[in-house]
Amino acid sequence: MRQLGTLLTTDLIQRLRDKSVIIFAVIVPLALMGAMNLVMGDAMDMDLETATVAVSAPEDDQLATALVQTLPEIGLDVEVTETTADDVQARAESGDAKLGLVIPDGFSAALMAGEQAEITAIRGDGAGIETSVVLSVVQGFLDRAGASAVAAAAGAGLGLPPAELGEVAEQVTTGEAAISLTTGAASDEQLDPKGALVAGQAGLFLMFTVSFGVLGLLAEREFGTLARLRSMPMNPNLVVISKVLSSFVLGVVATSILLAVGGTLFGVDFGSPLPIAVLIICAVIATTSLTFIVIKLAKTSEQASIIQTILAMVLGIAGGAFFPMSGGGLLGSILDLNPVAAMIRGLGITSGGGGLADIVTPVLIMLGFAVVAMLVARLVPDRGAMA
Amino acid sequence: MTQTATEPTRTADGQHVLVVEGLVRRFGDLTAVDGVSFTIAPGETYGLLGPNGAGKTTTISMICGLLEPDDGSVTVLGQQMGPRKVAPKRHLGLVPQDLAIYPDLSARENLNFFGKLQGLTGTELKTRVGEVLELTGLSDRAKGPTKEFSGGMKRRLNIGIGLLHKPTLLILDEPTVGVDPQSRNAILESVENLSGEGMAVLYTTHYMEEAERLCDRIGIIDSGTLQAEGTRDELIRLIGGVDNIALTGSGDTVAVAEALRALPSVAQADAERGSLRLTVHDAPTAVAQIVTAATSSGMQLSDVQISRPNLESVFLHLTGKALRD
């Protein structure tokens, strides 16, 4: 145990003096986060602009008026200007309005009669996501109005008097919805784009950070120190174990720094420290387990670098280090078993207020990944550093 | 078949420091070491002399427990050696051919690190580190990173690490490869002193002069096989006390060699480009007859050199090739 401590301590001292681990495990990923934030900053901010809507609505049309009055109340910043149909077209084309709506004469009457009623929507120059939201609201209103027309028609078919038909139609249009959707507290929380960027880069560079242990082992062989170490009166496995432990320590420290500093720089709150610590440790265990396979395969540090880079890029990209990945069926299931994806998912849960009980699934995925990697490492013939 | 010139020495209790018996190691179809056996007694310096690729480093790797032999055994002070054996490794001090030191650590840190792995602690560790720094002449540079050291300083530290725990058996694998003459001489003096202090030393080299200077007994190894072993004089006697004559000049050296082989005093004649290398009985007497025969066979001589037999001659005699081939 004392010899293992000596091996581990000396290895960590050398890593720090070498400075490459500080550069590649901390400085480069932070710089990359900053660069990606600059490049994709607008897309990540997702701040919706004011939706300027020009509307032409017939006077004294009850449903048209209701629609126009609904628009400013949808939760977005919507600026409605009522004008003529020609002016709506002009405003949309000039960009003064991001959306133009032309509601035809006899709109309410047509709906109540169960006839076709058509609203013309014109997307203006510079229309963005807020325009789409407004259009969705209009579509929702029309769907509900259409349903009321159907209900009124059905009532008429049953012989209801006209006064009651109107009440039914109004009830359908304005009544409370019978079915509602409730959002869970934590389990389905997703990281915002900046949080996903920080977590993704931390996950990706974790794959590189843990490779320093393998590279250190191969460097020992290339320097000739491995032969000397193996001639020492100790279990030769201690050399490999010390490198793996070194990778683990570096991985935990570097990932913690990345999440803490990245979170501070980009204003991301990943949540409670304890579940975050558990996620980091499990992610480091999962990624470090891959080094056992690399140790078996790589004969030189160049080979180890190539193998580790391939693994890091494949798992990093598939795990959503750069942008969210999704897939259905078997592919989707495989993507979900990725430790980088599991860590990002776990951090999404903790950022939404989730605790230890909520991160069981990503934790199990990462630990399961580690077990499988270790089993694979046992099956792979040893042609690497310790052969 | 190994030709043994002497019965190896033993300790007072009859125990050798190192006993190597029938070592075999194969790499695929290649048999790198094939039935190598020898012993080393306390205070004895044993040289393994052979060209590059002869099997010296593979033999040492098995002796140090870095490689598992396919056959045969190694015992150090009566304890069986192997990759997973811990106890016999306590008696070993390995000085690998490569500079097995950490460039980002200072000399003192390197010594402290390997000393701790050898089991040294506290005052003993501190004392030994100081002694080895003094012995290797690195006390003044103990705190500087070794990556700033000269090649000779690194070599001295490399040897110092092997000595740190006062091993019973010191193994030096070609420690002077790539070393400047001054450092090389210092290394050879160190080995001589250690042997004088009672340490058993296994020294591999392909430099004949090092083996002749340092080693009490020498094993000549080639193609994985120990060809012969004994003291320098015993090995020379193995080849019948012959001398060497080198003829340099122009002419058909192959035809001249053929002609010289017919002379009764010539045991062996090898033609090289522009020269002839002869193994002869009683060179001072035979040289006149050889020169006459060579010139009458058409060779224009520019130089004639007579040399008494040495380990190079022994190696040539045993393997048919030069040490540096």
Overview of the molecule:
The complex is a heterodimer of chains A (387) and B (325). With 387 residues, chain A is mainly alpha-helical. Chain A contains 17 helices and 4 strands. A 4-stranded mixed sheet of chain A has the order 2-1-3-4. In chain A, strand 1 (51-56), helix 4 and strand 2 (78-82) form a beta-alpha-beta unit. With 325 residues, chain B is α/β, with parallel strands linked by helices. Chain B is built from 10 helices and 15 strands. Chain B has helices at 56-63, 107-117, 122-135, 151-163, 181-196, 208-214, 232-238, 253-260, 283-296, 311-319; strands spanning 3-4, 18-27, 30-40, 45-49, 71-76, 79-80, 92-95, 169-173, 200-205, 217-222, 225-230, 243-250, 266-272, 275-280, 300-307. In chain B, strand 2 and strand 3 (30-40) form a beta hairpin. In chain B, helix 2 (107-117) crosses helix 3 (122-135). Chain A binds chain B through residues 2-3, 6-7, 10, 13-14, 17-18, 223-225, 227-236, and chain B through 61, 64-66, 83-84, 86-87, 89-90, 92, 94, 96-105, 109, 113-114, 116-119, 145, 161.
